[in-house]
Design a protein that fits this description.
By secondary structure, this protein is mostly beta strands. The chain contains no helices and eleven strands. The relative contact order is 0.32.
Length: 112
């Protein structure tokens, strides 16, 4: 069955960095478009970034452009989200997703 397991969240000060990982199994990872979403308290889940199966095409929400980088290692079935210049408004639970499937999420808190 499809499994997506995120890790790498935590508490970081404004301006800091975190690198999220998502290990995938149960499907052909290398041919799957993958996305990172986030959901802040009291808000709807929103897409943060997406990447094509081969990694050649990436998309970002305007709010994270220039600060976040999505990447993947198809040999390791792993999706990444490098987050730099973090802001308090980036605080949320971050989820990786393949269409129709979600991981359990990892909490990112940006606070001084």
């Amino acid at each position: 069955q499809v499994q997506l397991v995120e890790s790498g969240g935590g508490l970081v000060q404004p301006g800091g960095s975190l690198n999220l990982s998502c290990v995938a199994s149960g499907f052909t990872f290398s041919s799957s478009t993958m996305r990172w979403y986030r959901q802040a308290p009291g808000k709807e889940r929103e897409v943060v970034a997406g990447i094509s199966g081969a990694g050649g095409m990436t998309t970002y929400a305007d709010s994270v452009k220039g600060r976040f980088t999505i990447s993947r290692d198809n040999a390791k079935n792993t999706l990444y989200l490098q987050m730099n210049g973090l802001k308090p408004e980036d605080t949320a639970v971050y989820y990786c997703s393949r269409i129709g499937y979600w991981g359990q999420g990892t909490q990112v808190t940006v606070s001084s």
